[in-house]
Design a protein that fits this description.
This protein has one domain. Helices cover 76% and strands 0% of the residues. The chain is globular. It is mainly alpha-helical.
Length: 357
């Protein structure tokens, strides 16, 4: 049995490597796949950050490194990978513990709004905007204080309920910021403006923060995804999970539309549906490819974890290695999706030209 398990592990890893090579060399969508691989190589921080967040994320998170039994059938593995793909369309980076960055990001936004009014996305930001941002900053600091206190002692029921609610809100907000930032990074890499990668990364952050109306809209939508995923995780039936996956795929273009345009409200939703219609073929093609790669990555990672012995050191090493494998494929397929839609769904529309700035 150990020999058979060792052979299955080796074959699954080799299958994943061969699959990656074939996609880069002969796949019909090899251009966005190659561009995504090149961007990952230029941004050395991306995969280590993604791996760390996957290791630290909560077990209930759709992107966490949860165990998958190798006895699952092909349909169960497909559903699991499809849910993974649908989730990364709205949150490539696991929202927890990334949410802890929000109390540091809000003071930076307030500073830029006061020192550089044009950085807020408006020529003259209103006093109401500053007041709301200041209020959000103070609330985020209070939430972070509750999180720290929770590490040392149990909070009263009322404070704990506030802490959980604010955690969901902060996680949804950082999902939106991180998703739009990564998409702006792809846009900056495809159409470079700065002199180097560090300059492009900084410009991507500035462009992201100026799109705060769209970020608020995405935060509300992400809050629905988080609450829905948490509620469905305890259900035995798979029908509600399929409905959640369908809804996430239906609104898949919203983060890209926010990153590409400065539309607001109903116009933002209508334009995202238009992009989905124009890029339907590209979306379907890249989705099939991404799901196949995720299936290989998830199965290979689980085979690696089952190959580990009982020693704590070996289990930890294999867990980190499997997280690295999954994070690499996860980040690659997300960037390939953005590149594919960028070329075949967004740039094809002349109306997007002046709004992309």
């Amino acid at each position: 049995m150990p020999t058979l398990l060792w052979m299955q592990t080796l074959l699954s890893v080799c299958g994943l490597v061969v699959g990656v090579i074939l996609h880069l060399k002969w796949h019909p969508l090899r251009r966005p796949l190659s561009d995504a691989w090149g961007l990952m190589q230029s941004q050395a921080w991306f995969i280590p950050l993604l791996t760390s967040l996957m290791l630290l994320s909560e077990p209930s998170s759709p992107l966490s490194l949860k165990p998958e039994t190798t006895s699952l059938g092909l349909l169960q593995l497909f559903q699991s990978s499809l849910g993974h793909f649908a989730w990364l369309l709205h949150g490539c980076l696991p929202s927890w513990p990334l949410a802890c960055v929000l109390p540091l990001l809000l003071p930076f936004m307030l500073y830029r709004m006061n020192r550089l009014p044009s950085a807020s996305g408006a020529r003259r930001p209103r006093a109401l905007h500053r007041s709301l941002l200041l209020f959000a900053m103070l609330v985020s600091w209070g939430w972070l204080t509750l999180e720290i206190l929770e590490l040392f002692q149990s909070l009263p029921d009322g404070f704990d309920a506030i802490r959980v609610g604010l955690r969901y809100t902060a996680s949804a907000a950082m999902m939106a910021v991180a998703q739009v930032y990564l998409i702006r990074l792809v846009i900056g890499w495809a159409e470079p403006v700065g002199l180097n990668e560090q300059c492009d990364a900084w410009l991507a952050l500035e462009d992201t923060l100026t799109r705060w109306p769209g970020l608020i809209f995405l935060t509300l939508l992400n809050l629905l995804w988080l609450l829905g995923s948490q509620s469905l995780s305890s259900m035995d039936t798979s029908l509600p999970q399929w409905i959640l996956i369908e809804a996430q795929c239906l609104f898949a273009m919203l983060p890209l539309t926010v990153a590409w345009t400065r539309l607001r409200g109903l116009s933002l939703g209508a334009e995202s549906m238009s992009v989905l219609w124009r890029a339907a073929r590209a979306f379907l093609a890249i989705a099939i490819t991404d799901i196949a790669l995720l299936m290989l990555a998830r199965y290979s990672g689980e085979m690696l974890r089952q190959f580990a012995d009982e020693t704590l050191l070996m289990r930890g090493f294999v867990r980190v290695l499997s997280a690295l494998v999954l994070a690499t494929v996860h980040g690659w397929v997300f960037l390939a999706f953005v590149f594919s839609i960028l070329h075949q769904g967004l740039k094809s529309a002349a109306s997007f030209g002046p709004a992309a700035d």
